[in-house]
Fold each of these.
Amino acid sequence: MCSTSCHTVENIESDSPTLKGALASPQRESWVEAISEELHSLDLAHTWDVVPRAPAGARVFPSKFVLKVKRTSDGTVERYKARLVLLGHLQRENIDYFETYAPVVDFTAVRIALVVASYTNMSIHHLDVKCAFLYGQLEEEIYMRLPDTYAPTDGSVCKLKRSIYGLRQAPRAWHTKLAADLATLGYKPFQHAESIFTRDKNNVKIFLLIYVDDILLLVSSDEAVKSVKDEIGRLYTIKDLGEAKYFLGIKLERNTHGTLRLSQTNYIENILDRFNMTASKPVPSPMVPNKTLMQRIPRTEEEASAMIGVPYREAIGALLYLSIRTRPDIAVAVGTLAKHVQEPRSLHWEGVKRILRYLQGTKNKALLFRTAMSTDPLTLTVYADADWATDPDERYSRTGIACQLGANTVWWKSRKQNSIAVSSCEAEYMALFEGSKDIVWLRNLLCEFGVCQGQTPTTMYHDNQGSIAWANESNLRKVKHIDFRYHFTNMLITAGQVNVKYIKSANNLADVFTKCLVGAAFERAKLMLGLSD
């Protein structure tokens, strides 16, 4: 177990070696084969023209091979991968590149898509576009030299024609090419979620969820899956990964009844190993109530010295990724400790280690998506809550939101409010605003997935009678000092899109996103969230 004075993190270099290290390793032949395969792919794609020299004044960018051992969900070696990457950090804005933004699918939309697929018994498959960035057309004039071991001896350089990896504009060029190609096949992009494309042809509904070069394919007919893959395969060289088992680091397990489990057991084991916590003793909750953890207390020189080299920021980043994907039960704990990434103290590092110990005992927990009866509608339900003045330094309150589609938790958030509430009722009223925003987006998104909520208002449960009365009140004189935007809930109620109902705090799913729960209350919250072994 890593103590407070731990100054280093174990680095598994064998999974990401340097070129020199790889060529001197026992796996040399595997790495040489991977590099040869990469160069062959670049050649087939006509990625560049070899020219004797770059024009006068043109910058020639260096490149390197990025090597990675690709592993399966259980940690075994799948293959050795080499990627030739241009060092794009040397590019100059408005000279070597212009626009760079490229969208990827939001994981909330992925969860919703998986619920819809489970509910309607759609086939879920996974495709990987090989060397995806090389399909992007490069408009700028860019020159590159190969790594020394593979560079031509006559000093010639490469004039790029394709958007090679590492270029700042490469993701945008690839997405532009992909969207144009899919349009020729009849696919239309979603209006309320980026990088989702859909087509309804011959009574076959298809959704494509794109995350860079990974494609999650949802098809309403098993018989149509092959033809859809063949269509895409005629456009690009793809790797057919079959039924989706592992997507964006998430393990997908689907049983014969259609129930789907989303888990990150391997990821948790990796971060436990990364922070030397594999032998740690499990604890029953990720955090215990402790106001000191939330306070920004200036560090002494001794405390600052003790934290030198402690990987606090890295640990918070790894845990945040987990909390927004499949583990909502650690959201409050991680959010609380993330406040101190600039000046963490030993107390905060102990808090991080407690979360890791909690994960040690719950690493097999999965987010469960259940299949409802075919006669039951996929109804959107939202829970909103707030914890008043929970921040001891600035007196900001914390909002918690949980959204369920049927009985499946598809979206959650735990965040500090943007302004100070002078009473608990005001804090709760502002939480209703956050839930209302989510309802508008989710209702629109669900319509694009073919599960419109119709004219029925979405129920939002809340545990504060005063704020519910305010939200339903057409005359808001009593809260005229509150920013106008927070009256958004009242506007949606009037429009018939939202119906706010009272619920006891013990049954409010959002309560776990506002404060530290322990014991029976925490276990109950996990069951309500759909976390299961």
Amino acid sequence: MNMENTKTYRVLVVDDDPVSRKMLVFALKQEDFACDTAGDGMQASDMLEKGRYDLVISDLRMPNKHGHSLAVELLESPERPAIIIHTAVDDPRMTKDLLTRGVDDVVYKPTNYATFAARARVLVERRRTAGQIDQALSKVAKSTHAKPDRIESGPKQELEKSTEVDLAKILPISQTAINVYRLTQQNEAETAKIAATIAVDASLAAELLVLGNSSHYNPSYRKILDLEEIVVRIGRRRVGELALATNARASLSQKLIPWIDIDLMWRRSVAAGLAAELLFAELGNNDLEEGIFLSAIFHPLGRIVLGSIFAETHSILVEQCAESGETLTNAERRAFGRSHTEIMAELLGQWNIPAEITFPLKHALDAYASLSQFPEVDRTRTELLKLAMFIASAAVGCWQPWETVRLPPTDTLRRLGIKAIAGLIEKTREGCLSIVQQQSGGSRAVNQQDEPRSEQIGYHSFSAGGCDFLAAVLPSLGFEPVYGDLESQELVLVNCLEVDTALVAKLLPGGKHRFVFFTDGKPAKSLTSLGKVVLLPTSCARLREACRCEGAANDSARKTLVPTEV
């Protein structure tokens, strides 16, 4: 067994099959890993006691000590390595258990070893980059349970030194809000006890009274001042989730992070929560609700954490993305190793909210295609969250240039049994306006100056399925699609999503139009010769540029705008 100390990362490959070990070691060495091997879990445990590894790759079925036992043992280590299970055992329940416990990845045999090694390298690099965030989140979560004036100067100075940010900038959730959430998760807790716990925090009680008196929860408009009645109207579980969210909202201030529109972020939170409720109502399946509403209302707030801990870096990323057209999600992943929704899921975990509750939030920005690897319930819950986030963005509008425009696949709606997406967007818009107006003291104008001016634009769709997501989202971006008679339109947007683009050119409407084609795959040459091609997902800035035929419109070298996010 040779130890190569000159390599960048150390990996321990654990497998009783010598051929598999040899293939893995060969591929990993191409990615600059220093490789050790073990033939079973017992041998691996002995080696792990003697040395530190950045990565452990383990089979499941092995003599003496199997891989599941080894993984559980590693997960309990204070400074554990990254863990990848490499197995031929295709068991969804086992996979869910391992991922829920914290294993970083599960890869099934047979394997493309070169791809495996490349993924392993990226995983280890991300974990190393993310170490600083983990440390900061842990310290922040422990400190936010105490009032600022009770935090000892030593720990506070240490935190400010390590994160370059004051604690007041990191979503300080009160202990009362956490207590309310925990009570509402207990079926035996009485409504009176929940109301009494809310009343301990006057600001929290006031926030929930405002929410309970909005037309969304109180269509009768009869003024309600009794907290017990508010709990009943909103719903026990929902009150607990809203207690956490509204308490976090109360701590937000635009002055803290000037490059982030916190008011817009909160409206997206409210809208995503409402969209989740509407989706639950349409599905009629209460078994899928757990954690979706909570994840929906917290989904944008991880940016507050990143923007607070890494203020200078995050502000530079936002500025660069606004100029380049890159999505901020991509830039954050590159800079911090994780997305803002993953960070938010981790912070909720620090508040003792179980990982299975926040599983959809952790994977909210994963590609739809990648969700098929998860067990059916987890996949469906994550898809519902992603759909709620999409509906919220379309309902609220006011897109930032660096935001990602990602459209759900039509087969996802068919699989979920969701219909009339345009109606859900409109209902979410109305409900969000009602709640936000109530929270702003009844003002009828809520940031109307941020709403984009509507521009009419020719539109033609070849998209299959019963819902045209592109047409549904265009109004929130400031464009009103004009259908039918396109003769008066010089520019025509053509929806080619999820269709064979080779056939599109033959079916285009007549007339002397300039075309902009939207597709989610490699376009046929016949399209690139007729106009600009935009590959989705992309950033809001690039999509708007395309709709106006700006920037790259006359540059033949840039006629296909590649996606800024995958």
